[in-house]
Amino acid sequence: MRFYLKKIGFYLVALFAALTLNFAIPRLMPGDPVSAVLTRLASRGGTVAPETREAITAMLGQGGGNIFQQYIDYLKNIFTGNWGVSVTYFPNQVTTSIASALPWTICLVGTTTIISFFIQQALGIWAGWRRGGAFDNIISPVSTIFQAVPYFWLALIFIWLFARTLHWFPQSGGYNYREVVPGFTWEFFSSAVRYAILPALTILVSSLGMGVVGMRNMMVSTLSEDYIVTAEAKGLSPKRIMMCYAARNAVLPSISGFGTSIGAVVGGSLLTEQVFSYPGVGQMLLQAVTSNDYALMQGIFLIITVTVLVVNFIIDLLYGIIDPRTRQQD
Fold it and tell me: Where are its TM segments located (predicted)?
């Protein structure tokens, strides 16, 4: 119980720190969201009166007194679901705007990350088991190269190869806007899958290098342990030794590392969405930054931060169940 209480306390402190940074960082950036809205209204021929500025200031949550009072109001609004009005998608609420883009990112990043993790482990297990062989000599340097390749650069290469040259997949977008109407139909689903293949392939290939080499090295280290030698002396089959003895123990650091790598994967996916103009959270974040949309930026940062913290919290709890030695040390 002490182990779990320490984990809960740690992540509560991390959540408080994330909320504080989420409040401070947008306010340190130059610009004024109220002025951005007024400029947009003026460009459309709207009347910008002093009463208009006061009304927009109150609606955007910018008129809350000193910075301390704004912080208190910010915490209250976070937990009550009142995240403010988006400047970029004015007059929509931030929660409404994020809800329209979040499913795209969850389907793309979530599915691709899980698939990538299992492929990483499978390739690393086989490379470590066949260490020094042809497969190991190929997969290890290739994974190292992909680990150093930026997401956006690989995305540009895929666009040039598969979209511009071979014309296999569309270059950008989330679905065929001209021919398909969003809804629970086969036409929309198949179109969305076809448009998501290139962004998903970019995330998949870029993130493969993060775990293959690490899993391969852990397999090599585990195979030198005494219990592996004992299993071989007992005459157990190589398949059972590889999966039940070597891989079962070698995968533990990879499970722990999955939580720390999820942040890098999410960050890379946001860049990938911008390159492909994918209608996800990454594209929305770019528009929020260019529009000085404090409320929308805070909402997106909060979603990303909480997601990473929750994933790491679940993995830490699962790790304590999978490897009881971590609980005994605490």
Answer: 101-126, 138-163, 192-213, 250-271, 300-322
Residues 6 or more apart whose CB falls under 8 angstroms from that of 119 comprise 204, 208
8 A C-beta contact, residue 45 and residue 38:
no
Residues 274 and 133 in one domain: yes
Task: Give the Å distances, CA to CA, from 289 to 285, 286, 304, 325.
Answer: 6, 5, 15, 45
AA identity, residue 40: R
Query: What CA dihedral angle connects 156, 162, 168 and 170, to 10 degrees?
Result: 10
| Residue 69 and residue 134 in one domain | no
The domain in which residue 266 lies consists of 97-329
For residues 212 and 120, the answer to whether their CB atoms sit within 8 Å is: yes
CA-based end-to-end distance of the chain? 10
The 8-class DSSP code of residue 162 comes to I
Alpha-carbon distance of 241 to 191, in angstroms, equals 44
Number of domains in the chain: 2
pLDDT in tens, 9-43: 888 888 888 888 888 876 776 666 667 667 766 66
String of DSSP letters for 12-37 = HHHHHHHHHHHHHHHHHSSS-HHHHH
In a domain? residue 6: no
Same domain, residue pair 103 and 78 = no
Q: Is residue 291 part of a domain?
A: yes
Last residue of a domain, one of 41, 57, 82: 82
